[in-house]
Structures are given as structure tokens and as C-alpha cells.
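Sharing a chain and its predicted structure for anyone who wants a worked example. Both blocks are below, sequence first, C-alpha cells second.
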Amino acid sequence: MAGELASQLRDVETDWALLYLAQAKVAATSREAWNRLFTQYDQPVRRLIHRLVNNDELAQELQQEFWFRFVRGDFAHAAPERGRFRNLLRAAISNLVIDHFRREKRRRNAPIADLPSDESDLLKQLADRDAAFWRTELIKRAYATLRTECRESGDLHAVVLKVETKSGGKSSATKAGFLSQVAGRAVNADNYRQMLRRARVRFVALLMEEVGRSLTHPTPELIQEELTELRLLEYIGVRRPRR
């Protein structure tokens, strides 16, 4: 696995690289990098904030403040421990929410019932949910890329994975029949198993690329460590992506 990953990493443009470009004062480059980062992270930022505040209106307000801080250059010198981009987001979002709670406490000059009793409680909430959140997020991104590739190439990788997911413990022949209906051509059990193997290989490659983008220096060793910490190794061994 490490050998295959090493060759893939050469073409991976990391989120950290985009962050540095987006914070630069080169207009064209900054605009493109900013758009890519915003597209990639706007909804994840919103969902993480909402998990902490559990309020749609407040989550939207803090989401806007997050990007205001970004554009202002607050993350220009960010370098989280071990170079994980999700650590940057976790720290930035927790600081953002804590700042909001502090302002509310000062403004009301009284405790607020629905706020954490201690800031460490808030950090623990986010830390506890972080791995599960990013595991889901990375899987969704990898599968979305796979679907895009299939639309452009005509491959059936995404369809095969969908059939495999929805068909549970049915036989390969039965699943081949389902795939035949979608593909508009006959697919036997052997064909199905071969197509499933290729689809899984491609999905795993895309998943590893997504993990690599979130690291400062995505070496094969760090990628595998991140896959292990996020419990993605066991996922790619036994499960398929869900829509």
C-alpha cells in the first residue's frame, strides 16, 4: 500500500498549499485558491459549527464570521501539530464558538443555560466528534469524485459500488442482474466481481488522495497513520461508500 501511495502523492495538491496561496497577496492566484478552499470547506465548517451550537441561525452567523477571519488573514501563519488540516479547522472553530460564548456572557452579564459550563467541555465535544465527522466527510468527497469520473468516462465504478451497498448479502449473480439493468447490457457474476474489485481499488485511491490533501507533507507513512486514526483502514476493507 505504501508503494502505491507514494506514486499517487506526487500529484496531490494539499489543502495547506491552497491555504498558503489563498493568504498570498497575488490577486489571480489568491482568488482561485480561495474559491477552491471555500467550495471544499464551506459546508463542513457549517456542519461542525452547528454540531456545537445546535442552532441554525447562530451556525450561519458564525460560519460567516469564520470566513471573515479567513479573508482577514487570521490563518496565514497556521501550522497545527503534525500538519493536519482538520486540526486547523477544529482549533479555529472551537476558538470561534468560545469567543461567541464569551461575548454573550459579557453582554448578558449572566450564565447562559444552554452553554457548556466550561470551555474545556466545548473542546471535548468537538474532539469527540472530530474523527467521525472527518471520516464521513472524506468518504463523501472520494465518492463524489468517483461519480464525476464515471460521468466523464462512462465507467460504472460508482454504480457498481452503489449496487453492492444496496444489495447486502445477495449473490454475485443477483447483483450482476441489477447492474445489467442499469448498464443496459448483460453482466454475469464473474464480470460483476471483476468490476467491483476495480471500483474498490479506484475508490480507495481517491480516498487516500483526499487524506493526503489534508496533510502538510503527505508521506505514505503519515497517510496510513491518518487512515488508521480515522478508522478508514477498516472501512475500506469491508464497506462501500453510501450516498
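Comments welcome. The two ends are 26 Å apart (CA to CA).
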